[in-house]
Amino acid sequence: MNTNSLKEYSETTKKPWSVCLDERFSLIHRIRSKKCRLYSLGLGNDDNQFELSMANSGCEVHRFDPSIKSAHIQEGRHLWYHRLSIDWRDPNPAIAAHKLHSSTKKLGTVLNEFGHQKIDVLKADVESAEWKILENLILEDVVEQIGQLVFEVHIHWPGFEVSGNDSTVVRYWYSLLRELELKDFRLFHTYKDLSKPQMFLKKEAFNASSCYTLSWVNTRWK
């Protein structure tokens, strides 16, 4: 179920970014046929072993990070870095014109610009922006173009532009997870990061973590 079986996988990966290699679903077959595509969303994270392992297995890997110095960098045959932040909205053109070295776009916009119809794996480690990004993917049906989701989620506070009391926030989170289920995404792996504070919506929570990594497979992708 994880990338241990992939070629040149590094055991130094700092956290488990697990993908589903079950023969019933498309990813393992697309890896074997060298037709796999991975998008990785990050914010200055130096841990890129997962991306490297997927690229070394023949996957086309695109890593989006606004902290990258150049607009586009190709590293090896299969790995590209893009100075781009994936957001839940496209920027106001008047504001964007003043920002010369950074860019923010919705994932659907990037897919159209890159000419990509599908993503086999979408990995996101975006420090509390994940809930709004996930909402956008669901509302615009972009999620149906994705084979697997591997998201780091944060629950120590509501997240960017998420408001309301605790019960409202929890219902909002739940509604997004429920929508994934209704679109036939199945959660197959969870990881509780015990190195992070034991917090839930700014309150101490025993035997919990403020950060989890969740992996889903789109069961419609056979």
TrEMBL record:
Keyword set, alphabetical order: Methyltransferase, Transferase
The name on file for this protein is Methyltransferase-like protein 24
In terms of InterPro entries, this protein maps to: Methyltranfer_dom, METTL24
Gene (name only): METTL24
Q: Which source organism?
A: Lonchura striata (white-rumped munia)
Q: Which residues form the Methyltransferase domain?
A: 29-155
One matching Pfam family, short form? Methyltransf_22
Tell me, which GO biological process terms does this entry list?
methylation
- The UniProt record lists the keyword Methyltransferase: yes
Q: Which GO terms describe its molecular function?
A: methyltransferase activity
- List the taxonomic lineage: Eukaryota, Metazoa, Chordata, Craniata, Vertebrata
